[in-house]
Design goal:
Chain lengths: 261, 172
């Protein structure tokens, strides 16, 4: 029986965890009254469900249905004229949700705001491409990497992976070395599936040492001829050290390698 | 003006040189290796440096070509992604026979540090490789050495490429 491995999160984990280690948290501060960010929160009104300051940046939690309106207010009333980044975080294993974020920049005030919302798996989000042209590629990347559909996007197509790719690589359920489709992608595409046997599986461990490979690995003290079959175990030859015993150099040593070229 | 000189000590005293077709053809092939300009990642910088004046590949008859139709060596310099593998194979197929392949750098040899879903784990999965050039990235001298090894290999081959099975030609 193969060992059961949970499939909801296949990302690599550290093999050792400190029981007493406490993950450092970024301190969250209240929005100070009469500050620039207080005006931003006031302009958003009810749309800002929760707001706080992390490392000098305002974070506002919003409803996923109101993302377009919130970004429009930020752009037109608060002076956030750039959407520098937009993507998602996979919390499907933990909460069954994606966290989407929009990182906004106000150039005149030198301030940044992050609008954050959460959607369930399979839900779609409204495109903000009419407001920010940069969201065009960012939303395509989000669709490519997470499979989150974006409504009213002008050209929703994979941006990094090939068009015929299966799976969304930034999901936690996607293995780093790729699934079956990914590992045979180039062979299937170029030669066809019947060539899988000819080419063989990928070698994901190039530094692997084969104990019985006599072509590429030497065995000190247990030398064998080049390309000899040692699957039954090699013949032992004692190593002679000149410090301990008198080495007889006239005797034919077991380590003579006549056949190797 | 140079005097016409005949070395009576060699070639039975005649002003001729005897050779075989294999030698003559391979002399031509090995001294005019035209590689396809095919930089994929940072190894391409070293490949460019090899072609530029300091290391000067031109003196070896190696002139980079921008078209696979005019090239007979493919130097795969850098990481080959799975998305691009189809096009790499197409360019290889477009090259005219005889053709050789140098896999330059760790990424092209084995996938290198990119042990991920998106990288081809060694270009020999899709293209037959003649010379594997280790390094990350290899210095221009190393590429030059690889090219000289390829020249050596070509000189050992038969001029009729049908007689050459790529596997049994092992360089010492």
């Amino acid at each position: 029986m193969r060992k059961y491995v949970p499939k909801d999160n296949v990302q690599g984990k550290s093999y050792y965890t400190d029981r007493f280690w406490v993950a450092p948290r970024v301190p969250r501060e209240e929005v100070e009254a009469d500050s620039h960010f207080a005006a931003v929160v006031k302009a958003l009104g009810r749309k800002a469900k929760e707001s706080y300051i992390e490392i000098g940046q305002l974070v506002v939690h919003i409803n996923p249905t109101e993302n377009f309106n919130v970004l429009q207010i930020l752009k037109e009333k608060c002076g956030y004229t750039q959407c520098s980044e937009q993507s998602a975080v996979d919390y499907l294993a933990k909460d069954g949700e994606f966290e989407l974020f929009y990182q906004m920049l106000n150039i005149t005030e030198a301030k940044r705001v992050r609008a954050v919302c959460r959607i369930k798996e399979g839900e779609a989000i409204e495109s903000v491409e009419p407001l920010f042209k940069s969201a065009n590629f960012a939303e395509r990347e989000m669709f490519d990497m997470f499979g989150i559909k974006v409504n009213n996007h002008p050209f929703l197509k994979r941006i990094l992976m090939p068009d015929d790719w299966e799976g969304h690589p930034l999901l936690k359920t996607y293995p780093l070395h790729g699934d079956e489709f990914a590992s045979w992608y180039e062979v299937d595409k170029i030669f066809g599936k019947e060539y899988r046997d000819v080419i063989g599986p990928e070698n994901r461990d190039p530094s692997r040492i084969d104990r019985y490979d006599t072509k590429r690995f030497s065995r000190v003290g247990y030398e064998v001829p080049f390309d000899a079959d040692i699957s039954a175990g090699e013949k032992e030859a004692a190593i002679e050290y000149s410090e301990t015993v008198l080495v007889d150099y006239t005797k034919d040593s077991g380590k003579q390698l006549d056949e190797r070229r | 003006m140079a005097q016409h000189q005949v070395n009576y000590a060699s070639s039975a005293g005649l002003p001729i040189a005897l050779t075989s077709v294999d030698k003559l053809v391979n002399w031509g092939r090995s001294n005019s290796l035209w590689p396809l300009t095919y930089g994929l990642a940072c190894c391409a910088i070293e490949m460019m440096a090899s072609g530029a004046s300091r290391y000067d590949f031109d003196r070896m008859g190696t002139i980079f070509r921008a078209s696979p139709r005019q090239a007979d060596v493919m130097i795969l310099a850098g990481t080959l992604s799975k998305k691009h593998s189809e096009f790499a194979r197409r360019l290889y197929d477009q090259m005219t026979e005889p053709k050789w392949v140098i896999s330059m750098g760790s990424c092209a040899n084995t996938g290198g540090m990119f042990n991920t879903y998106a990288t081809v784990q060694g270009v020999d999965r899709i293209i037959p490789v003649d010379i594997y050039l280790p390094g990350c990235a290899p210095r221009p001298e190393t590429l030059q050495y690889a090219l000289m090894m390829l020249q050596k290999k070509i000189r050992r081959e038969s001029a009729n490429m049908n007689n050459n099975t790529k596997n049994n030609l092992r360089l010492v």
